Amino acid sequence: MSSSNTRRNTSNATAGPSSVRDVPSTSRNAHEGSSYQTRGTKRKAPPTSSEAPLPRDKSLGNYIEFDLSKLRNSKGGFLVEDEDGPGGSAAKTVEELKKERERQMQRLEQEQDPGIILDSSKQPRCHVCNSLEVDDQFRRIFGILVCKTCTKADPDKFSLLTKTEVKEDYLLTDSELRDPELLPHLLRPNPHKATYSNMMLFLRCQVESYAFGPNRWGSPEELDAE
């Protein structure tokens, strides 16, 4: 009896208080202890007062927070080319930007507003219906006094043709189409790509008047013979 008590006291004296704390009771506690120590070595310092996010104001109700510095202009949802990507404004050369500005200036010259005429007797009128609502674009570009109602009512006469259509249907040359005194044309941005040349639109009645005239083919039959 005394020998067993002596061995128990000896074992208790050998395993001091520090040894009892270091040895976990189960394997699960041992795993948690090691992971806790590992996580403790990688723990980041808490954010300072200047870096910490602002507290959410509950009085404003439900709302979504955005980082305005990371927002990107989506151009109203339209499909547009990336300005920073290939072909964007960031990749354009000085010469390309110069040509683009020249095309814009050409279109702006055609879109200048006319002067106001107060005397009704001197105001231009549509030569078809005698209306005062003359299409100013037709008057300035093509020199024809006609209202929009009449242009829509007679598309065979007042419709607009592209340069490609005029060349293929009436067999006219580039030099003829680029002469504004011979064939006036309306400039529009190229629908395929903004860096291309302006799109040229011609008035059908003026194209047919020149193509079927004595200085070109002479008649529709002569054109068909070609």
From TrEMBL:
Residues 24-39 have a biased composition (Polar residues). Keywords: Nucleus, Zinc. Residues 157-207 form the XPA C-terminal domain. It is found in: Nucleus. CDD domains: DBD_Rad14. Its main location: nucleus. InterPro entries: DNA-bd_dom_put_sf, XPA/RAD14, XPA_C, XPA_CS, XPA_sf. Gene3D superfamilies: XPA C-terminal domain. One of its GO terms (cellular component) is nucleotide-excision repair factor 1 complex. This is XPA C-terminal domain-containing protein. GO terms for biological process: base-excision repair; nucleotide-excision repair involved in interstrand cross-link repair; nucleotide-excision repair, DNA damage recognition; UV-damage excision repair. It comes from Tilletia walkeri. One of its GO terms (molecular function) is damaged DNA binding. Coiled coil: none annotated. Residues 1-59 are annotated as: Disordered. Residues 1-15 have a biased composition (Low complexity).
